[in-house]
Design goal:
Layout lengths: L6 H17 L14 H14 L21 H11 L12 H18 L7 E5 L2 H15 L4 E5 L5 H9 L3 E4 L9 H8 L4 E7 L11 H10 L3 E6 L14 H8 L6 E4 L12 E5 L35 H13 L8 H19 L4 E3 L7 E6 L4 H15 L11 E5 L1 H6 L11 E7 L5 H19 L1
Parallel strand pairs: 2-3, 2-4, 4-5, 5-6
Antiparallel strand pairs: 1-7, 6-7, 8-9, 9-11, 10-11
């Protein structure tokens, strides 16, 4: 029988059992740092709780702004359990149990993306930033002196990591769906100086999916590697039943890409930070070679410290992800059941916005991000209405608030989507909502009604 999961029950249970496990190693004198005035400690924690009120309600379905939602209670409890030991997954010596958990979840993710689970190479990271850095670093080592190509709508991390790696980056224009333009890409590839093409499957702005299935043969033709940035959208490969056929075609091509990243701390129900990088071919391993006089490994088995740029990494992150995947495996009916309502929510809201007398869609959503704007005559009015709606929708009674985000657009982007205004500004803000909480599907009509109301007032 299914019951509501209460974090307080889980935490109490795991802490009690971990304390008992630790006690089996025999008693020792507790350092004075572990002793304190409990009244003082509780006062500090009470102050912390009060200060945490200065936050937006990231946990609530009314929060449809940025890519934020709480980790699943199972992940939180598992993280606490492992954190009581504080293992370091740099080596098996520093994190025995959690290293093996990490191996299991990485094989699961390799299988999800279509990689050979016996021939891939990969590990968890602190973030998608680090995961992308590693993939781009390997590409630089394989194709030294060559540039990184990414779409103009890709995450800014690729340009920034190009600077870190001292590698030039090239922004390829996008089409009227926010996807990398293939004609522009081939023209740039013809120069022969592109070492890797980054295809984003789920841009953080629009949720757009670059045409990976078509990018791969183009890149191969000109000797470039292909890296997939699936930090936000990677897990959508699990729910082909609610994605468009064209979108599914590109997700199915991940298996042929050289590398892919995904962030379990976004759609994977994990606490920050938990990213992951995977390489299709484990022969990239020697690029990680290193040596130091204090590094030793008690086991001859492969240690994660031998195949990662980071050194210390929380074994608790591996434990949390492992535990979560026991409850929500990487299947359509497992973790996919958490993603599917968000995708359906975006589809439903798109339909409602398409029929609205005050709102219009910017483009059709591919994943669970919906972007839309007020029906106004000019860019200046658009910016003003968007800003006022953004502020006012989240004001007042907490139970009536709707938290949104904005997205900056230029005249050419609006014209490409058939939206013609008086262009009296070089750019304007429009509205953007991320619907990554499954509870938001039931709330979409209410969210839509609220946004419409505030848009009318702002006009």
């Amino acid at each position: 029988m299914k019951q509501t999961i209460r974090l307080s029950d889980l935490i109490g249970n795991v802490v009690s059992k971990m304390e008992a496990q630790k006690a089996t190693f025999g008693p020792f004198d507790t350092h004075i740092s572990q002793k304190a005035n409990l009244d003082q400690v509780n006062q500090v924690l009470d102050t912390l709780i009060t200060r945490l009120e200065d936050n937006y309600p990231y946990f609530h379905p009314q929060y449809a702004a940025q890519m934020l939602k709480p980790a699943h209670p199972v992940a939180q409890a598992a993280y606490v359990a492992a954190m009581m030991l504080n293992p370091n997954n740099h080596s098996i010596d520093g994190g025995r149990a959690t290293t093996y958990m990490e191996r299991e979840v990485m094989k699961d993710m390799a299988t999800m993306f279509g990689y050979d689970p016996e021939n891939f190479l990969g590990h968890l990271t602190w973030s998608g930033t680090t995961a992308n850095l590693e993939a781009l670093w390997i590409s630089r080592e394989i194709n030294p002196g060559k540039a990184i190509a990414h779409s103009s709508d890709a995450h800014y991390v690729h340009g920034r990591m190009g600077e870190v790696l001292n590698v030039p980056t090239v922004a390829i224009p996008t089409d009227n769906r926010g996807r990398m333009d293939l004609v522009a890409l081939e023209e740039r590839l013809k120069a022969g100086d592109i070492g890797v093409v980054v295809a984003t499957l789920g841009t953080t702005g629009l949720g757009a999916v670059d045409p990976l299935a078509d990018i791969i043969p183009l890149a191969r033709k000109y000797g470039a590697r292909v890296h997939v940035d699936g930090a936000y959208g990677g897990y959508f490969i699990l729910i082909p039943d609610v994605l468009d056929d064209e979108t599914n075609r590109h997700y199915a091509a991940i298996k042929d890409a050289d590398s892919v990243v995904v962030d379990p701390h976004k759609h994977g129900l994990q606490p920050y930070g938990c990213g992951a990088v995977l390489f299709r071919d484990r022969t990239v391993g020697p690029y990680y070679k290193h040596d130091s006089p204090y590094t030793y490994f008690a086991s001859e088995d492969l240690h994660y410290g031998e195949i990662q740029l980071e050194t210390s990494r929380a074994g608790a992150a591996a434990a949390a992800l492992w535990a979560t995947l026991q409850i929500f495996p990487l299947t359509s009916d497992g973790l996919g059941s958490i993603l599917r309502p968000g995708r359906q929510a975006a589809q439903l809201w798109y339909e409602l916005i398409s029929k609205s007398d005050v709102l219009q869609p910017y483009q059709k959503p591919e994943l669970d991000i919906i972007v839309y704007l007020a029906k106004v005559p000019s860019m200046s009015k658009l910016d003003q209405v968007s800003h006022d709606t953004f502020l006012n929708a989240s004001a007042g009674d907490k139970t009536q608030q709707t938290h949104l985000a904005t997205y900056n657009v230029k005249p050419a982007q609006l014209l490409a989507r058939g939206i013609d205004l008086v262009y009296d500004r070089e750019s304007a803000r429009i509205m953007r909502s991320v619907l990554m909480k499954p509870e938001q599907l039931a709330l979409v009509p209410e969210l839509h009604e609220h946004v419409e109301e505030w848009t009318r007032r702002s006009m």
